[in-house]
Design a protein that fits this description.
The chain is an alpha+beta fold. Helices cover 30% and strands 19% of the residues. The protein is built from five helices and seven strands.
Protein backbone atom coordinates (compact mmCIF):
# COMPACT_ATOMS: atom_id res chain seq x y z
CA UNK A 1 0.00 0.00 0.00
CA UNK A 2 1.05 3.55 -0.78
CA UNK A 3 -0.17 6.86 0.56
CA UNK A 4 -0.07 10.23 -1.15
CA UNK A 5 -1.30 13.68 -0.28
CA UNK A 6 -4.10 14.95 -2.50
CA UNK A 7 -3.11 17.05 -5.53
CA UNK A 8 -4.14 20.27 -3.77
CA UNK A 9 -2.14 19.46 -0.62
CA UNK A 10 1.50 20.41 -0.32
CA UNK A 11 3.96 19.23 2.32
CA UNK A 12 5.86 22.21 3.72
CA UNK A 13 8.85 20.91 5.72
CA UNK A 14 10.43 23.12 8.36
CA UNK A 15 13.48 22.87 10.57
CA UNK A 16 11.64 21.33 13.54
CA UNK A 17 8.09 21.00 12.32
CA UNK A 18 6.19 20.85 9.10
CA UNK A 19 2.77 21.54 7.72
CA UNK A 20 0.40 20.42 5.03
CA UNK A 21 -1.03 23.33 3.08
CA UNK A 22 -4.29 22.88 1.17
CA UNK A 23 -4.21 25.46 -1.63
CA UNK A 24 -7.94 25.19 -2.35
CA UNK A 25 -9.33 26.12 1.05
CA UNK A 26 -6.19 27.66 2.56
CA UNK A 27 -6.13 25.33 5.57
CA UNK A 28 -2.78 24.59 7.17
CA UNK A 29 -2.26 21.48 9.27
CA UNK A 30 0.76 21.62 11.58
CA UNK A 31 2.81 18.44 12.13
CA UNK A 32 5.72 17.52 14.33
CA UNK A 33 9.12 16.57 12.93
CA UNK A 34 8.43 12.82 12.97
CA UNK A 35 5.15 13.10 11.02
CA UNK A 36 6.75 15.49 8.54
CA UNK A 37 9.52 12.97 7.81
CA UNK A 38 6.99 10.17 7.37
CA UNK A 39 4.86 12.17 4.93
CA UNK A 40 7.99 13.16 2.99
CA UNK A 41 8.80 9.46 2.53
CA UNK A 42 5.26 8.76 1.30
CA UNK A 43 5.44 11.69 -1.11
CA UNK A 44 8.67 10.19 -2.51
CA UNK A 45 6.70 7.07 -3.44
CA UNK A 46 7.68 4.79 -0.56
CA UNK A 47 5.20 2.11 0.45
CA UNK A 48 3.78 1.84 3.96
CA UNK A 49 6.10 -1.14 4.63
CA UNK A 50 9.15 0.76 3.31
CA UNK A 51 8.32 3.79 5.45
CA UNK A 52 7.96 1.55 8.51
CA UNK A 53 11.29 -0.14 7.79
CA UNK A 54 13.15 3.14 7.12
CA UNK A 55 11.69 5.04 10.07
CA UNK A 56 11.50 2.21 12.61
CA UNK A 57 8.14 3.56 13.75
CA UNK A 58 5.42 1.07 14.64
CA UNK A 59 3.02 0.32 11.82
CA UNK A 60 0.09 1.06 14.13
CA UNK A 61 1.36 4.61 14.72
CA UNK A 62 1.91 5.18 10.99
CA UNK A 63 -1.61 3.96 10.23
CA UNK A 64 -3.08 6.27 12.87
CA UNK A 65 -1.37 9.23 11.20
CA UNK A 66 -2.60 8.20 7.75
CA UNK A 67 -6.14 7.66 9.04
CA UNK A 68 -6.12 11.16 10.53
CA UNK A 69 -4.89 12.65 7.24
CA UNK A 70 -7.56 10.73 5.31
CA UNK A 71 -10.27 11.84 7.75
CA UNK A 72 -9.25 15.47 7.07
CA UNK A 73 -9.32 14.90 3.27
CA UNK A 74 -5.60 15.52 2.92
CA UNK A 75 -4.64 12.29 1.19
CA UNK A 76 -5.54 8.69 0.46
CA UNK A 77 -4.24 5.14 0.06
CA UNK A 78 -3.31 3.64 -3.30
CA UNK A 79 -2.76 -0.03 -4.08
CA UNK A 80 0.26 0.71 -6.27
CA UNK A 81 2.88 3.38 -6.70
CA UNK A 82 1.19 6.35 -8.38
CA UNK A 83 2.24 9.72 -9.78
CA UNK A 84 0.12 12.51 -8.33
CA UNK A 85 0.34 15.74 -10.32
CA UNK A 86 0.10 18.60 -7.87
CA UNK A 87 -2.57 21.18 -8.48
CA UNK A 88 -1.32 24.69 -9.11
CA UNK A 89 -3.23 27.93 -9.10
CA UNK A 90 -2.94 30.65 -11.71
CA UNK A 91 -2.60 30.80 -15.44
CA UNK A 92 -0.53 28.19 -17.30
CA UNK A 93 0.84 31.13 -19.31
CA UNK A 94 2.63 32.34 -16.19
CA UNK A 95 4.72 29.17 -16.32
CA UNK A 96 7.24 29.11 -13.48
CA UNK A 97 7.18 32.85 -12.94
CA UNK A 98 6.09 32.57 -9.34
CA UNK A 99 7.06 35.74 -7.54
CA UNK A 100 8.27 35.62 -3.96
CA UNK A 101 5.71 36.71 -1.38
CA UNK A 102 5.72 40.32 -0.29
CA UNK A 103 5.80 40.55 3.48
CA UNK A 104 4.07 43.58 4.96
CA UNK A 105 3.26 42.49 8.52
CA UNK A 106 5.67 41.63 11.33
CA UNK A 107 5.06 40.33 14.84
CA UNK A 108 7.72 41.01 17.42
CA UNK A 109 7.82 39.96 21.06
CA UNK A 110 9.65 42.32 23.37
CA UNK A 111 9.59 39.85 26.25
CA UNK A 112 8.62 36.27 26.86
CA UNK A 113 7.74 36.98 30.47
CA UNK A 114 4.11 36.21 31.06
CA UNK A 115 2.43 35.32 34.32
CA UNK A 116 -0.90 34.51 32.72
CA UNK A 117 -2.07 30.94 32.25
CA UNK A 118 -4.45 31.18 29.30
CA UNK A 119 -6.39 27.97 28.64
CA UNK A 120 -4.84 27.61 25.18
CA UNK A 121 -1.30 28.26 26.40
CA UNK A 122 -1.30 25.83 29.31
CA UNK A 123 1.57 23.34 29.11
CA UNK A 124 -0.83 20.44 28.64
CA UNK A 125 -2.80 22.13 25.87
CA UNK A 126 -0.05 24.12 24.14
CA UNK A 127 -1.03 24.76 20.55
CA UNK A 128 1.66 24.17 17.98
CA UNK A 129 2.22 27.90 17.53
CA UNK A 130 0.87 29.37 20.78
CA UNK A 131 -0.44 32.93 20.65
CA UNK A 132 0.68 34.93 17.67
CA UNK A 133 3.78 36.67 18.92
CA UNK A 134 3.91 34.71 22.18
CA UNK A 135 7.35 33.55 23.17
CA UNK A 136 6.43 32.16 26.57
CA UNK A 137 7.37 28.65 25.48
CA UNK A 138 10.15 29.68 23.13
CA UNK A 139 13.64 28.22 23.29
CA UNK A 140 15.10 31.73 23.48
CA UNK A 141 12.71 32.71 26.27
CA UNK A 142 15.42 34.31 28.42
CA UNK A 143 16.93 36.40 25.61
CA UNK A 144 16.00 40.04 26.09
CA UNK A 145 17.19 42.81 23.80
CA UNK A 146 17.87 46.35 24.91
CA UNK A 147 15.74 49.30 23.76
CA UNK A 148 18.29 50.51 21.18
CA UNK A 149 18.37 47.08 19.52
CA UNK A 150 14.56 47.07 19.32
CA UNK A 151 14.61 50.54 17.73
CA UNK A 152 17.10 49.27 15.11
CA UNK A 153 14.94 46.22 14.39
CA UNK A 154 11.82 48.34 13.93
CA UNK A 155 13.66 50.79 11.68
CA UNK A 156 14.94 47.87 9.54
CA UNK A 157 11.40 46.50 9.26
CA UNK A 158 10.21 49.92 8.03
CA UNK A 159 13.10 50.09 5.55
CA UNK A 160 12.16 46.64 4.18
CA UNK A 161 8.63 47.86 3.53
CA UNK A 162 6.70 46.39 6.44
CA UNK A 163 3.46 48.34 6.79
CA UNK A 164 2.22 46.77 10.03
CA UNK A 165 4.30 45.95 13.09
CA UNK A 166 2.55 44.19 15.95
CA UNK A 167 4.31 44.39 19.28
CA UNK A 168 3.73 41.81 21.99
CA UNK A 169 5.33 42.35 25.33
CA UNK A 170 4.41 39.27 27.33
CA UNK A 171 2.68 40.76 30.34
CA UNK A 172 1.77 44.23 29.08
CA UNK A 173 1.56 45.62 32.62
CA UNK A 174 5.19 44.73 33.32
CA UNK A 175 6.56 45.85 29.92
CA UNK A 176 4.43 48.91 29.16
CA UNK A 177 7.39 51.29 29.63
CA UNK A 178 9.33 49.47 26.88
CA UNK A 179 6.47 49.83 24.43
CA UNK A 180 6.18 53.57 25.18
CA UNK A 181 9.91 54.10 24.62
CA UNK A 182 9.97 52.13 21.36
Amino acid sequence: MYYYLNPECYLIPGVRQGAIYDIINGNVFAMDEECTKLIALFEMGKSVCEVQRISGILLKKINLLLQELTKNDLGKYYSERTFIKKLTLGSPLEKNTRKPPILTRAYIAISGDCKFHCWYCDKDMLRSLGCLGCSKHSVSKNLELDIDTWKKIISQLKRYGFKEIYIDAGDLNDNNYKINII
